[in-house]
Amino acid sequence: MGEYETSDETLATIAGRHGVTFDRVRPLPRGVANHVFLLGDDLVLRIPRSKRYLQDLVKEAEVIPAARHAGVRTPEVVAFDSVVDVPYMVLARARGEDLARLEPPDGVFQQVGRELAKLHRLSPATVPGLSTVPVEDGNADPWALTDHLLTAGWIDAEAARWLTGWFDRLSAHLPADPPLVLVHGDIAPQNLLVAPETGRLSGIVDWGDAQWADPAVDFAKMPLTAIPAILDGYRQEAGTPAWEARVLWHHLTWALGRLTNPAPHPGERHWTAPPASRLLGLLRFFTSTPPAPWADLV
Question: Which residue ranges run through the membrane (predicted)?
């Protein structure tokens, strides 16, 4: 697959370019796409795991400056370069722990919503130079997905009729032609950094899934229990979009889609890695007396 090597020599060369000695290079938990290292105390080094993920890093080099210009809290790109055919990105370090490791502090989800509202002001018309950002290639058809799950024996006929009716009701709330805006594409706990001492959001990281898409997509990779607060923060910054049905549509469709690929992924940090997580998240949310209008959307 064209793996990029992260030898001591390569790491020492990159660190030296930024005035850091090799003994101050420390590995961080790697993501799906990148090896990640601390360079001293103030810089973060990311090297794609293979050529498959290089294009995502190229995209990030374009998207991050645009997001920062819009006022989004995300670390600055210090360098995007290569050494001995190994591409890499160096970013300023955002101080904090990711939300996958923390009990969410009060108010942090509202902060996430406000940052998303800033990001979603960017469109192909306002930032036409983002040539590496793809347009979302369309959402899965939930009715066809439900029929497939029935035919394959994953659900029974009564459940299929109930799901079909649920999607019918939700579809009445969907815009025929949703606007295309810049979305992060992976707003999830492990990509949200929080300063533990203040409880404030210190940065949004990992922009490799950025695309032009319906803004409601950016609310689909956080647990549903966090979404009311995130939407509240979004509305503080951008008005009052009635997006609950659109967000629920994505959560439900993706939860059912996970049934078609039920293999677990032990060790992965994303909350949706366990096959049942999304469905259990829906169950947990709707049995916890969610605020209006969520209960009316079932």
Answer: none
CB 246 within 8 A of CB 277: no
The domain segmentation of the chain, as residue ranges, is 8-92, 97-297
Judge residue 75's burial from the number of C-beta atoms within 10 Å of its C-beta, 0-12 exposed, 13-18 middle, 19 or more buried.
buried
pTM score, whole prediction: 0.94
- φ/ψ region of 185 (left if φ > 0, alpha if ψ in -120 to 50, else beta) reads left
**Are the C-beta atoms of residues 179 and 125 closer than 8 Å to each other?**
no
Mean pLDDT by 10 residues, the chain (298 residues): 88 98 93 92 96 96 98 98 94 94 94 98 95 88 97 97 98 92 97 94 96 96 96 92 93 94 85 93 96 95
Q: Which residue spans within the chain are E strands per DSSP? A: 25-28, 34-39, 43-48, 77-83, 86-92, 97-98, 181-183, 192-195, 200-204, 211-213
* Burial (0-12, 13-18, 19+ Cβ within 10 Å), 177: exposed
The CATH number assigned to the domain with range 97-297 reads: 3.90.1200.10
Using DSSP bridges, classify how beta strands 97-98 and 86-92 pair: parallel, antiparallel or unpaired.
Answer: unpaired
* Angle subtended at Cα 98 by Cα 94 and Cα 100, rounded to the nearest 5 degrees: 170
How many other CB atoms are found less than 10 A from the CB of residue 282? 17
Q: Which residues contact 125 (CB under 8 A, 6 or more apart)?
A: none
Amino acid identity, residue 31? G
- Between CA 180 and CA 123 the distance in angstroms is 6
